[in-house]
């Protein structure tokens, strides 16, 4: 290692040794059974416990970032381990202590990148994102000039107080979703506009350890929001919601003035206030997939259920949000890009659990989860749809993909 | 990037058995499969690192690994969840770390003869999730219920929180498949039965394979007991002005004779002081309270409801004040989670220091509990004053016998240790503290361990003394079954078996 890399590692250990020791000294491993990756690999290298213990070993001079970097790829940053940890459960309120495995994983990935240890697929992904300003969503042509193509024919304007931020996967791949959302907002009387030039939120780059890159996207997007006078940002993807509520405030500090809203919260409110009525029955047997970033990381699990219960005709077979701490699609945290086979196995397991409920529909509220879940659903005849697509349909609105 | 700690030839043979995916040679893989949650001389971590990790899926693979180990003289250390508190799964001589987590299949659920057959890498919480829709459960319920695994439960001969009602691990295994230290595969049960609960044919071999800490082979499959899921669960917490009244009341409750009794626990004032001081989930109790007794019952409604009324009467008549439903139900429900919070460690000055949790877990008779308690706390106090890195987190005594909870108790003293401060001197001080505690246990006719095993430093030195002539038998068995000393060598002083 170069001296600079050594210094970086020393600083990192200094910063994280005590929190890591909080886990090392407990080591009960209650987190292991809820960890989606551990559930399929059964390889302890990928456990939250190891993610913390490695730092203690680094302090002992036994391991280096080069030894462990690859292990930290195996995390979807779902946050389940943090919730299941007795240290969070029993010391969380009083000591304001929470086991922060997700932050540890992000920090270790950043240290790896800063030390010149890169994962090939992430590197390519981030480079392409920088190049095109949006993520190179698989199987579709991505370019900045197409970022708003999904909105063709909807008559949406640019700018205003409220902005709808459409995630790359939704904008380029699952265009039914943003179209459904736009129509719901129009019908519910919510005034909103689009950005002049929407770049990737930068969240994935940060999750993969490319923090400087992530900031560049953030700086652009925030400048765009300010330029059009936006103060409220509606996100339809939980990943963006995390980026805007956790990463951006870190980048901009007290100067970050935006209210960030997730679509499920807003739509539940519209229904509650009678501004949106769901009249068209949907005669399906469905269960709900709690997206990790909504449920485990942000505690949003009531509004989606409230919405599903408001849909007439739907036979909704719920699995409570605590049981779902151990559920995941496997799509988050860049895992699907670097280890697609593990993502697929996690999605298979999620669909097995859905199949046990005899449903024909799995409803998610996270567009990134929907591709791997849908693939796993095919062999079981379980369709995977986004909650907002269902809402639109039940509100009598057209749900179509863009045809251009 | 790191060079392997094993020869290319051994690596190739292992890959031949397991495929590349099942053989891990990297440093993080090896370093993360050494320690257990028990305090660990972190400054000596490197002495306990295995040379290679294997992740088998089948019995045949395990047998081949063990045969290979015999041929090459390589140690094999089985590891399940790695939560054992006596360092059983910590290699003392490197070698092959055999991690059974990928052996996690449920092979058969037999609702007619009431058994479930599993591989050793399954955890009880997961298993019971699958069993629940069938109205049955596997009732082994340690505080490590969300993490420990069947293989480790057998390897340590574990103790269950509801063992008075349903039995402990060794009472809940009908039969098991074992890869012996020579690589031969046998099934041990009651006589030759797979799903029998009692037989008298031949020697009673099965108990030998509980609590051997991986020194007598590897369990690769177990046929476990299924019990009906209880219709009713009852818990009551009583408070007392002094320890002696609480101790007498504990005796009265434990001797009540109700078959539904799952456990009676006696907490002393150190434990209460600790909870009052630092446990945010602690439900506020009046200052006069110096001791608490918890009682739990499980079973059918027709049994539990009337029995609970009697238990309430006995508790009150023996001097207890009922502490209310909130603590009774809430604290009982949180029993798996209220463990080892490093933030609860305090120095004598009151300053918070991140401490690891150590617990002594002696088995002791009811009659000696008050005296042992005083002696143990005095020892802890001495070490706290002298070294400043320890903290006394109090004691509890928990009914110990399966189905016969009256005569003896699992007695724990929980001690916080600031591991980051350990060096050779502090480590030795800690071992001396443990040794003094152990000497008290033996002086009062107790056993070093009711649940975790006694193979770690500070305990293990006393095993020959505790077992006497039985330790010689232990050595003979070890040598007979493991002629080349490949299974978890160095544990339980069993190297002595090969001295002559
Ligand atoms: C928070 C916490 C609470 C606890 N509460 C309790 C409790 O209430 N009761 C209790 O009894 N214990 C308790 N323990 C201790 C621990 O959970 C038990 O000792 C448990 O039985 C260990 O299981 P494991 O799967 O972690 O085994 P490991 O630690 O992996 O192994 C334990 C021993 O078994 C051997 N072994 C593992 N698998 C096999 C196999 N397949 N064949 C042969 N040998 C094998 C290992 O070599 C080792 O010697 C607690 C621990 C923690 C951390
Ligand atoms: S992350 Fe929490 S639950 Fe997991 S081992 Fe560490 S302290 Fe225990």
TrEMBL record, chain A:
GO terms for cellular component: plasma membrane. GO terms for molecular function: 4 iron, 4 sulfur cluster binding; metal ion binding; oxidoreductase activity. The keyword Metal-binding applies. Keywords: 4Fe-4S, Iron, Iron-sulfur, Metal-binding, Oxidoreductase. Residues 66-95 form the 4Fe-4S ferredoxin-type domain. It holds the Pfam family Fer4_8. This is Heterodisulfide reductase subunit D.
TrEMBL record, chain B:
SUPFAM superfamilies: FAD-binding/transporter-associated domain-like, FAD-linked oxidases, C-terminal domain. Residues 46-229 form the FAD-binding PCMH-type domain. It comes from Kribbella caucasensis. This is D-lactate dehydrogenase (cytochrome). Keywords: FAD, Flavoprotein, Oxidoreductase, Transit peptide. InterPro entries: FAD-bd_oxidored_4_C (IPR004113), FAD-bd_PCMH (IPR016166), FAD-bd_PCMH-like_sf (IPR036318), FAD-bd_PCMH_sub2 (IPR016169), FAD-linked_Oxase-like_C (IPR016164), Oxid_FAD_bind_N (IPR006094), Vanillyl_alc_oxidase_C-sub2 (IPR016171). It is an enzyme of class 1 (oxidoreductase). Transmembrane segments: none annotated. The keyword Flavoprotein applies. GO terms for molecular function: D-lactate dehydrogenase (cytochrome) activity; D-lactate dehydrogenase (NAD+) activity; FAD binding. One of its GO terms (biological process) is lactate catabolic process. PROSITE patterns: FAD_PCMH. The lineage of its organism: Bacteria, Bacillati, Actinomycetota, Actinomycetes, Propionibacteriales. Belongs to the FAD-binding oxidoreductase/transferase type 4 family. It comes from the Bacteria. Its EC number is 1.1.2.4. Its cofactor is FAD.
